[in-house]
Amino acid sequence: MSTSFILHRKTNSLILFTMQFLLACLPLVFIPSQGMPQNLMNGAPEIGAQVIIEPGQTAQEIDHLFKTLNESGMTITRIRMFEIFMHKADGEWDFSLFDLAFKSAEKYNVKIFATLFPATSFTDVGGFKFPKTDAHLNEVADYIKNAVTHFKQFKSLYGWVLINEPGSGVAPLDEPFTQKMFSSWKEKKTPEIYNSKGYYTLDFDKEKFLVEYNIWYLNWLAAEVHKYQPSAHLHVNNHAIFGNVAEYNFPEWRKFLTTLGGSAHASWHFGYFTRSQYDVAMSANCEIIRSGAGNIPWLMTEIQGGNNTYSGFEAMCPTKEEISQWLWTIIGSGGKGGIFWCLNPRASGFEAGEWNMLNFQDKPSDRLIAAAEVTKTITKNEPLFANAKPVESGINILYTRQSLWIEKKQKAAGANYEGRMVGGVMKSALGYFEALSEMGLQSNFKAIDEFDFTKTDYKGITIILANQISIPSTNWKDLENFVRYGGKLLVDGLTAYYDENSLCIMKTGFPLETLFGGNIKEFKLVSNLFDFKLDEPNLTIPAHCWRGTIQISGAKPIGTYENEVIATSHLFGKGEVVWTPSLLGLGGRIKGYTPLIAFLNKELHESIVNAPFRFKTAQPGMLLKTLHSGDHFITIVVNKATKVQTVELVGTQKLKPTVLFAEKNGKVIGSTLTISPEETMVIDWK
To answer: What span, in angstroms and rounded, lies between the C-alpha atoms of 335 and 327?
Structure first.
């Protein structure tokens, strides 16, 4: 292997780490991960629940937990491998408590994802994300050596979760090890090729470093595991995806992972959504992870399984219907499984008695029974689900990490508009995702660097840039080529206001003027909501906060306000750019999506007519996911509306439906289905 590795393929915000750098920074030799093991998840999706192992439990109690998993049709679990419960004060290791769990798992044919959890305070619920000192790093290495060497003997060990929920928001620069790594990173980083024309700009070194630091530490953990188990299945679960995604570089993670995962706890992670939107939140979370996983399998490593009494941001207990909705949404998004947090609760400390799917008498709750019904359906139709893949619509909602960085750095204290608050960028993109979901269309949700810009034909493919305030210089030509070769680009809000360094490129020679067919004259604050009127088609769409006016240079006006151009269409090469520099996605999220959907129906006509399944008319509060398996289609329909819905699907005329799953006796006749509130239906079409 080369003595250097690239931590980011394209973006100039991420640079080259070398072995020389690593050797200078670390008290031990860095050994790169040894590549992909062979135990990929190629079968039907598997469902399970985390088993909490802690001192005080008896062998009989532990055995009962795995027996319950087996009786519920659950074939996978996750165990947090607490060093503090294994490593004794005298330095000796006692694995006997966890041995009981691994032996019971073998007995009941349950596969274990073992989460590395080096020693930390008993009150540290999630675990540390980076080593604190050189000595601490060595302690982590010693823990991995002892844990992996011991537990690799068990057939029930399926894989190692390298760390619980990487993602810290900011690098812990108050800790010595991180200070040293950051200082060395700055000393050895190469000069930026693009320097924003020499203007003074904001400093994003800490943000860039954090992305690379996550890659480095995860790869280091992977290498340590592979020292002692070269074929080990390696996994990791990101978390709080809508806020933390800017620090994740999934394409680099793929190089040392077997599977990618995520945590999707409604209580912790869905703060941008209301309770009735939690299913579409799960759908968006899944699509981000699916894109990040690329060519490796993914599963949802943590799903909220029970009541959160004192922990979490939003107090709630999932209903049995939500358990079904979340599982089927994961499966409909291409996930190879899901693991609930958790089967049994901790007995003491933070989260004691919380999150569990068993009641305090160790009997199945209605939530566990609901999950078991899903496993039963999958098992009954195993070949069908084993080969199922999401149907691609050709619609891609892209986000840039630089937009999220700049938004956070530019935030105004006491900001009173959604667009000016942290979250405005992500919520704008989510607005389009939610509108498309109401249409019954699946859309990809990707980092811009996960999109394949290497093709020479993008006919039928659409990119939506919804208020992505920063478009990095490395992507300007990518977007030009995408449209030149037949792609359609929908541009919303303040997209491309900044470059990657927070320079206002609309003022300093707009690099996308040729592509967009114009430049912005100015943005004016209007109000929380205002009418945005299009001439072609004749529509009025709610918009939020700012109205942008355009100085055209080749584009065709499709919307005006007081003799100023506010929307354009520009033919470029074989493709088209439609530019609406007002926040339509965020406006729709505030007011409702009906007008935005009318706009999308026109602009996305080719993708819509080619979709194998969609709602004939938009269905607020409903979700449709479509899978393809051989000569079958599988549709997953969720009704979050408050009444029974009778809905016609388009694209079903020659196919015969069979209902595989319907909690409340939902029915389908021809192309029309009837579904109760909170019901999930799974239909096989052949």
So the answer is: 9
- The CA distances from residue 130 to 63, 168, 213, 214, in Å, are 34, 9, 9, 8
CATH of domain 395-610: 3.40.50.880
Hey, is 412 helix, strand or coil?
Answer: coil
Residue 141: strand, helix, or coil: helix
- Which is nearest to 578 in space by CA: 680, 451, 483, 679? 483
DSSP annotation string for 614-660: EESS--TTEEEEEEEETTEEEEEEEE-SSS-EEEEEES-TT--EEEE
What's the rounded Cα separation, in Å, for the pair 469 and 465?
9
Q: Which CATH architecture group holds 615-685?
A: Sandwich (2.60)
Distance CA 544, CA 535 (A): 19
The verdict on pTM exceeding 0.70 is yes
| Under 8 Å between Cβ of 653 and 671 | yes
Contact predicate 102/157, CB 8 Å: yes
Report the C-alpha gap between 633 and 348 in whole angstroms. 47
CA-wise closest residue to 475 among 443, 451, 501 = 451
- In the chain, domain spans: 47-169+217-380, 395-610, 615-685
What 3 state SS string does 158-185 have?
Answer: EEEECCCCCCCCCCCCCCHHHHHHHHHH
Alpha-carbon distance 660 to 473, whole Å?
49
- Same fold: 47-169+217-380 with 615-685: no
pLDDT, position 672: 96
Residues 585-603: pLDDT tens digits? 999 999 999 999 999 999 9
In tens, the pLDDT along 122-141 reads 888 899 999 999 999 999 99
Close Cβ partners of 448 (under 8 Å, ≥ 6 residues apart): 398, 399, 400, 468, 471, 472, 475, 478
Strands 680-685 and 632-639: antiparallel
For domain 47-169+217-380, give the CATH superfamily.
Glycosidases (3.20.20.80)
Q: Are 51 and 343 in contact (CB under 8 A)?
A: yes
Evaluate whether 250 touches 290 at the Cβ level (below 8 Å). no
